[in-house]
């Protein structure tokens, strides 16, 4: 094999609860997966086929700080369950989907809402609003062998101690096994792939100096300072 013509980019990793690192290959994000959030975003909450967009692996950030991004004056928080895969494949059967999960964490899908809105109006992709640097604050990943496969429990975020978002994992329109199975029909999933599983209603803007605390019952919590 020939030598690389540029320095080899590092494999991006996020921490696990045991102190080891989880290498990230791809990041799939499901849109409008809580009915109340679909309504607040102006959409019908009926169970339509799921849709996904992507962040980049190195958008996931465990530093505990979120730098307010450029070219936006309307950045929103979206608390989400992070699903981390240890294996994959194509056309994964629904009843076998959870066998591919290594663990779960708490994450935030930070969104430049104004830029996302402009892209929606023009029928363009959302990446400029979703996949910017450090747009995915994450906490440690907990192995499913320790915490099981959470399918219910409070999911919430507060800002400066004020409650903002709150829901329950059982309100997800598309459950974790369904997301894995559906994605595997269109992509070859592999170890290191992660899924951000959607957000409840209450998304709102943050400003520099804010402190966000995201929590998912049975999984953990995540504190992020907006800098």
TrEMBL record:
Entry annotated with the keyword Metal-binding: yes
Signal sequence range: none
The enzyme's E.C. designation: 3.7.1.20
Keyword line: Hydrolase, Metal-binding, Pyruvate
One protein family per Pfam: FAA_hydrolase
Domain of life according to the entry: Bacteria
Molecular-function GO terms, alphabetical: acetylpyruvate hydrolase activity; fumarylpyruvate hydrolase activity; metal ion binding
Domain Fumarylacetoacetase-like C-terminal as annotated: residue spans: 27-227
Protein name: Fumarylpyruvate hydrolase
UniProt organism field: Pelagimonas varians
Record lineage: Bacteria, Pseudomonadati, Pseudomonadota, Alphaproteobacteria, Rhodobacterales
Encoding gene (name): nagK
